[in-house]
Amino acid sequence: MPKYIFVTGGVVSSVGKGITTAALGRILKSRSVSVTLQKLDPYLNVDPGTMSPYQHGEVFVTTDGAETDLDLGHYERFIDEELTKSASVTTGQIYQSVIAKERKGEFLGGTIQAIPHVTNEIKARVRQIGRETGAQVVIVEVGGTVGDIEGQPFLEAIRQIRREERPEDTLSIHVTFLPHVGSTNEIKTKPTQHSVRELRSMGIQPDVILCRADHEVTAEIRRKIALFCDVDERGVISLPTMDSIYQVPIMLEDENLGDYVIELLKLDAAPRDLANWREMVDRLQNPTNEVDIAVVGKYVELHDAYLSIKEALIHAGIAQRAKVNIHCVHSERLEQEPVGSLLEGVDGILVCPGFGERGIEGKLEAARYSRENRIPYLGVCLGMQIMAIEYARNVLGLIGANSTEFNVQTPHPVISLLSEQMGIEDKGGTMRLGGYPCRLIPGTKAAAAYGTDEIVERHRHRYEFNNKYKAQLAQAGLIASGTLPDGSLVEISEIVGHPFMVGSQFHPEFRSRPDRPQPLFREFIAAAVQLRTGVDGGLIAQQRERVAAGGA
Ligand code: GLN
Q: Is the distance from the beta carbon of residue 354 to the nearest atom of ligand 1 less than 6 Å?
C-alpha cells in the first residue's frame, strides 16, 4: 500500500509550492523510494487546455494526451518519470464524473452532496494513482492556498484519508511564506500562524512547515513557528529563494527534510545521494560559455507562458556548459520594428508554439532572418509551420503561402487541416494530443541529434504540414527529417545547408530533463555555441560579419 504526502500552501500563492513538491519527489527517488506526484487543482475548468495563457501560463501535455497544469512539468523534470492523466485532477473533472454517475442512477436515488460524494470521488482519484503506478509514496499537491472556498472539498478529502490510513502512512506538509518588514528588518511569522490555524480548523495538523522567505530564517524564528503551530522543531524547514530551482532538492536535503520524512513515514530508504544532481547544478552554476537566444512568441511578457521551453533551453545549456541568456522578443514588435535591430547579435532564434493569427507575420520575419543570416533556429510546433510558410513564400516564391488557420483562402495552403488535405468537408478536426511515434530519416540533422531513428514525442495542434508541397519544398532545400512511421505526416523538418534550422510539429520541450537534455534543444544550443565561439572554423561567424557589414 502506498503512503501519501499531502502538500498544501498558505499565506500567498506563487511561492514555489509545485517546485517544492517536485524537489521532495527527487529527494525520495534519489534515496531509492519510488514516487509519483499528483496535482489537485480546485478550479472548475475540466482541464487547463481551454484556459488563456494569461490565466494559466503554459499547458503541459502528458504522453497519454492530457492537457495539464504546468506543475506537472516541474514534477516530470525533477522526478524524471512520465506522468499520466491521473496526475492532474480538477474540481471540474470531479463534478463531471459525480454528475455523470448521478445521471446514470448510480447513487440509487440518494441526495448528492459535497460530503461524501464529491470527497469520495477525490479520495478515489488519489488512491487510484497509487494503484496505477505502484509507487511507494504518492505526493499530492493541492493548488491554491488554504482558506480558498473551492479548496475545501480537497482538504476534507485529505482529512478523511489521513484518518482512514495508519498514522505512519500519511504526512502533511504546509508551504508558507514569511514576509520581511523592511522598516524594522524583521521576518514575520504571524501569517504562517494564521494559515496553520486555518488548516487545523479543517482537521489537518501539519507535520512539516516549509518556510519560504527572501531573507534568512533564524533558529529563533523556527522555534517560534514550531511552538505556535505545534510542529516538531525538526519539521520547520527554511527554504530561502535561490538562483535556480534545481538547487531546491539540495537545499532541502541540507535542511534534513529527507531524513525527517523517511523517519515519520517509517520508510525503508537508501542513504541520501544527490551526487549526480549536485554535479548537474554545478555545471549550471559554472558555465564556460555563454549564448544569447531570442525566444519569439506573442505571450513573452508572461513568465509562465513558455515555461517548459525556457527550462529545456537551460537544460541544453547545462549540457554544453553554456549560460543561456533568454531574450524574449514579442512577435508583434517584429512586425513594427526592423527585425535586424531586435534580433541583432543573438546566437539562436526559437519560434514558439501558438494559436491564432496575432504576431504571425513577425514570426515569419524571425524565420527569414534566421535563414538568411544562418543563425541557428528551432521551431516548436507553430514554429515549424512558420519555417515552412516562410520557405514557401521567400524561397519557392509562392506568393501568399500560409496556413489555413490564418487564411482559409490562401492560394498555397502549405499548412492545413488534414480534413482539408483529404478533401473532407467536415472541419471538426480535434487536436492531435500526446505521444506519437516518429521515424527519422537517416542522414538528417534530426536523426543525428537523436542518435536513433524511432522516437516518440508529444503533440498539441490541429494543423499539419501539407504533403502536396512536400516534394517541391524538399527540392528547394526544406526536407522532412521525420514522419509518422507510415510516412503519412511530416513530424519534423529541416533546411539543408543551414547550420541548424529545424522545426518540429511536436513539442520537444516536454521531454527535456535538467540532467538529460532533449536532443533537438541540445543541438540547437550546440549550434548557437558554435556560432558564438566560431568553433566550426569560424564559417558562421565570418558569414555573420559579412552580413553585418552589408555583404551577401
Ligand atoms: N496553431 C497551430 C496548430 O494548431 C500550432 C499549435 C501549436 O503551436 N501548439 O496546428
A: yes
